[in-house]
Design a protein that fits this description.
Elements (H helix, E strand, L loop, with lengths): L6 E4 L6 E6 L2 E7 L7 H18 L7 E8 L5 H12 L7 E6 L9 E8 L1
Parallel strand pairs: 4-5
Antiparallel strand pairs: 1-2, 2-3, 3-6, 4-6
Helix pairs in contact: 1-2
């Protein structure tokens, strides 16, 4: 059996990657690099960031299998959901998705997303 190549899309943050592709799967993380004000702006920026990372590993949102949305405050979920539903599009794109309440490490980061997609 040959050596399998891991493709890494490195983050600007030291010690981390934004995406890793291996053996037909890709694992991604998305956030708002500028930490805009408000959940609506951060969700849009986070999803744009996810789009760009999907593109870097040769795919799009249609291939998402699983997504976890981390929110610093679950009361923001309805506003995030509205933007998510516009972004994800038709039922054929809908991955399995969960939302969890999480301490994201500071008071300005409101959302982070992890995703797994089929290559």
């Amino acid at each position: 059996m040959g050596v399998r190549k891991i493709k890494r899309v490195l983050s600007t943050a030291r010690g981390r990657g934004d995406a890793t592709a291996f053996n037909g799967m890709a694992f991604l993380v998305a956030y708002d690099p500028g930490a805009a004000k408000g959940i609506a702006a951060q969700t849009r920026n986070c999803l744009n960031f996810l789009d760009s990372k999907l593109s870097e590993v040769g795919s799009g949102k249609h291939a998402l299998l699983q997504v976890t949305v981390f929110l610093s405050d679950m009361t923001m979920k309805p506003a995030m959901d509205e933007i998510w539903c516009d972004w994800i599009g038709p039922k054929e794109n809908w991955p399995q998705r969960a939302c969890v309440d999480a301490d994201l490490g500071d008071e300005v980061t409101l959302i982070e997303i992890t995703a797994i997609r089929d290559c």
